[in-house]
Amino acid sequence: MTDKPITHITDIVIPFFDVDSLQIAWHGHYVKYFEVARCELLDKIGYNYHAMAQSGYMWPVVDLQIKYIKPASFGQIIEVYSQVIEYQNRLKISYQIFDKATGQKLSKGQTTQLAVTLHNHELQFISPKILIQKIEGFHHD
Question: How far apart are the C-alpha atoms of 114 and 19, rounded to whole Å?
């Protein structure tokens, strides 16, 4: 594996259309914030969803966990820290969401994705070599 974990920080400004009448981000939007961070993390390692499809695989999310600690609100800038925590048999990414101004933790969670072949939709119980090569060959900035 790489000498240190592969991580990425994504800044997101909570938009008006994500909040309820109390101007608090609806809990379901945290899944979107994780997705935005995950896409940036996958771009960083050179194996985003387009590259996954080109290599013959799709990677559906099969498990999602979220713990809400404190709500995010309209106009707030949040930082979503994403990190690859497992990749040999599945792709597991952890997330932590912080208020950018104060550093206060707002939420945490993780997603698990499994490789499925595009041509016959067969579940893979070991991650394809392309993912392992991208992660193990990753060089930090």
Answer: 31
pLDDT in tens, 35-60: 999 999 999 999 999 999 999 999 99
The model carries a pTM of 0.93
95 within 8 A of 65, measured Cβ to Cβ: no
96 beta partners: 81, 108
* 12-31 pLDDT per residue, tens: 999 999 999 999 999 999 99
Which residues have C-beta within 8 Å of that of residue 82, sequence separation ≥ 6?
7, 8, 9, 10, 34, 37, 38, 40, 41, 93, 94, 95
Pairing of strands 61-68, 91-99: unpaired
How many Å apart are CA 82 and CA 36, to the nearest integer?
A: 10
Q: What's the rounded Cα separation, in Å, for the pair 91 and 51? A: 15
